[in-house]
Amino acid sequence: MRGELGILLRLAAPMVLAQLSQMFMGVADAVMVGHVSATDMAGVTLGGNLYFPTQFLVAGIIMAVTPTIAQLHGAGRVPEMGEVVRQALFISLGGGLVLVVLFNNVEPIYHAIGVDARAIPIAVGYLHALSFGVMPLLCFFAMRYLCEGNSWTKPAMMLALASLPTKIVLNYAFIYGNFGMPKLGGMGCGYSSAIIAWGQFLAMVFIVRHSRMRASGLFDRFSRPDFAVIGRLVRLGVPIGLANFLEMAMFSAVTLLIGRISVEAVAAHQISMNVGGLTFMLPMGIGMAAAIRVGFNVGAGDLVAARHSGWLAIGVAAVFAVLAAVVVLACREWIPGLYTNDPAVTAMAIQMLVFVALFQLFDDTQVTALGSLRGYKDTKVPMYIALFAYWGIGFPVGVILGYGYLGFDAYGPNGFWAGLTTGLAVAAVGMLWRFRQFSLNPGLIRQPAG
After folding, report:
1. Are 65 and 149 in contact (CB under 8 A)?
2. Could you give the number of structural domains in the chain?
């Protein structure tokens, strides 16, 4: 068990650092644009709450590459990997095209929802700028998952660490109008992110071509679309993408509804989301590592080791969740001051951070159990659990308590956060139940995915 813990942590550490670097880029956006105005901060938040769920949906489909490659790695079938990734690149291009069209036609959505009209031009401009980087980012993910499926998690870490300071410099140029660039405010965050996406894509092409990943044969030849392979990836990946989307969309829908209250409420919500996102990166990385280890052990035919890997990952995430909750509670009075000087935003954020501390206990365990299930290529039932937990329980509870329906008092943003926490608690129970059931059933494990 100690040896497996060491392997798990060595896999997880680079992914945690990569995810933290990506998250800190979001923090840089929030902090730097927050000092322009609360309206710019709200616009970026509202734009992100359409961008991230839809991007996670398509990226989740591509994430089918990770367990597929991990099981091929465990079985020693390295020459088959290149074809899998080539077909995943076709999915990246097709899905990216759909997102580009969506991000350039979003203004009616915001007007229909009725968010604060002051923030709409910022959100629309932010998404337009982001659209230039969508396709290279999704292609980057396909190659990243090739590396991670081979238990090589350092490339994504190195690129993310390099991207963080670059992001800050580009933000400084585009948000504030420095180095001869126009002053774009919140829209500048989108252009800097698009440039980063192109840089990561080109760097990953170089890494795959000039590293041990050459053995996969990814760039040895061109392949036409193989709809049999694409179909297998889509059947495995769509539930992954939908599970990601359902959680992200719940948070995004809540943000859009909070946007009907005030830009100050949205700004406070964004601060709380940033803090929750930062603490979420470690269990998310552990969940990704669990998918790799479980998949490798399944490919090697060692189902006992696969189960132990999953439970170990869940235990590590649970311990971290307790520590993170304590830290957030202890620091909630001064954290908002890092983002804003607005006293109304600060007061609301302090209250929301109590919920951030509480939902750590549920979010961290569910994401690790979900990652372990993906290692088995078990994706459909977890998707249904996510649908029920987030949209059958969490979102309705948030709306009822937030707006005061069914005889309840209206608790505003705090009511929405109570709903988010409830949804995550139900998801945690469901994912743990599914992992226990699935990992003990060799017949289920050996069934083809999809």
Report:
1. yes
2. 1
